[in-house]
UniProtKB/TrEMBL annotation:
InterPro entries documented for this protein: DD-CPase-like, VanY-like_core_dom, VanY/YodJ_core_dom, Zn_M74/Hedgehog-like
Database matches in PANTHER family: D-ALANYL-D-ALANINE CARBOXYPEPTIDASE (PTHR34385), PEPTIDOGLYCAN L-ALANYL-D-GLUTAMATE ENDOPEPTIDASE CWLK (PTHR34385:SF1)
Region (Disordered): 35-89
Protein name as annotated: D-alanyl-D-alanine carboxypeptidase family protein
Keyword Protease among record annotations: yes
Taxonomic path: Bacteria, Bacillati, Bacillota, Bacilli, Bacillales
rRNA-binding keyword on record: no
UniProt entry keywords in alphabetical sequence: Carboxypeptidase, Hydrolase, Protease, Signal
Source organism of the structure: Tumebacillus amylolyticus
Biased composition (Basic and acidic residues): 76-86
Signal sequence region: 1-26
Biased composition (Polar residues): 42-51
C-alpha cells in the first residue's frame, strides 16, 4: 500500500509540474531575456565620412565640401596685346618713346565722363574723360582710399593728339626739346591719348603733378594699393632709364587686375615685362 501511495504521489507531482510549465510557457507576458532577445542594431561605419562610395572604391565628396579651383597657367607677355599700331584699344597697350605711334587721330570709342569721380577743377572738361573700364576701376580705387582716410581727386585724364601736341610744343619752347622729352610725350606716343592713364592728387590739389606729391600720404597709399584696383605707377622711381620718363608718383595707368598684380609682384615696369625680363 505504501508503495502504491508513493507512486501515486510521484505521478501527481509530475502532472502538476507539467501543468505549471505549460502555463509559464504560454501565458507569461514578460519573456525571459537572453542573448537572442537583444535588439538587432546596425552601427554605421565611420570609415566613410566624406560622401558616397564611387566605382573605384573611393568616396565622392559630399556637396557641402569645398572644392579647390583648378590651377590657372601663368600668362606670358605674348598673351597681352600691346602694339599701339595694331591693338590700340587693348588695355595692356604699351605706349612709350620707342613704341609704334598710336593710329592717326586715334580716340577711344568708349571715353566716359564718370560723374562720381571728383577732380580738382569744376565744370566740364575733356580731361575728365577716361575709357569706361578705367574710369569704373578708378572710382573703386578712390572709394578704397577714402575708407583709409585718403581723399583723392583727378587732375588730368584723356588728352587728344591735338592737346598733347600743344602741350609738348609749349614745353619745348620753354625748356628745350631734350628737357621736354624727360616728362612730356611726343604727340602720338602719349599714354593719356589711350584713355587709360590719369594724373591724380589729393582732393585739395596740393602738389598736383609736382615732385612734392611723392612725399604725401596720398602718394604712399597709391604706391601700396594701386595694383589692387588694376592700376600701376607707370613711371616709378629709379626706372627713368627704362621708361624714358622721370619719376611721376601721380601718373596712374590702368592695365587690368591681372597684369597689375604681375607687375607689382615682380617689381617690373611694362617695358621690362614685355621685354621678357
Amino acid at each position: 500500500m505504501n508503495i502504491f501511495q508513493n507512486k501515486l504521489r510521484m505521478i501527481t507531482t509530475t502532472l502538476l509540474l507539467a501543468g505549471l510549465c505549460t502555463v509559464c510557457l504560454t501565458g507569461c507576458s514578460t519573456p525571459i531575456k537572453g542573448s537572442a532577445d537583444k535588439p538587432s542594431v546596425t552601427i554605421p561605419s565611420t570609415s566613410n565620412t566624406g560622401g558616397t562610395p564611387d566605382k573605384s572604391g573611393g568616396t565622392t565628396p559630399s556637396s557641402s565640401e569645398p572644392t579647390q579651383p583648378a590651377p590657372q597657367p601663368d600668362k606670358s607677355p605674348t598673351d597681352y596685346p600691346h602694339d599701339p599700331a595694331k591693338t590700340p584699344d587693348s588695355i595692356t597697350v604699351l605706349v612709350n618713346k620707342q613704341s609704334n605711334a598710336l593710329p592717326d587721330g586715334y580716340r577711344p570709342a568708349d571715353l566716359y565722363d564718370d560723374p562720381n569721380l571728383p577732380f580738382i577743377f569744376s565744370g566740364h572738361d575733356e580731361k575728365r574723360l577716361m575709357r569706361k573700364p578705367a574710369a569704373e576701376a578708378l572710382e573703386k580705387l578712390f572709394a578704397g582710399a577714402k575708407k583709409d582716410g585718403i581723399l583723392l581727386a583727378g587732375v588730368s585724364g584723356f588728352r587728344s593728339y591735338e592737346l598733347q601736341k600743344s602741350l609738348f610744343d609749349g614745353y619745348v619752347q620753354q625748356q628745350g626739346e631734350a628737357e621736354a622729352r624727360r616728362y612730356s610725350a611726343v604727340p602720338g606716343h602719349s599714354e593719356h591719348q589711350t584713355g587709360l592713364a590719369i594724373d591724380v592728387s589729393g582732393s585739395t590739389g596740393a602738389c598736383a603733378a609736382e615732385n612734392c606729391f611723392g612725399d604725401t600720404q596720398e602718394a604712399k597709399w597709391l604706391a601700396k594699393h594701386a595694383y589692387e584696383y588694376g592700376f600701376i605707377i607707370r613711371y616709378p622711381q629709379g626706372k627713368e632709364a627704362i621708361t624714358g620718363y622721370a619719376y611721376e608718383s601721380w601718373h596712374l595707368r590702368y592695365v587690368g587686375l591681372e597684369l597689375a598684380k604681375t607687375l607689382n609682384d615682380k617689381g617690373l615696369t611694362m617695358e621690362e615685362y614685355f621685354a621678357g625680363k
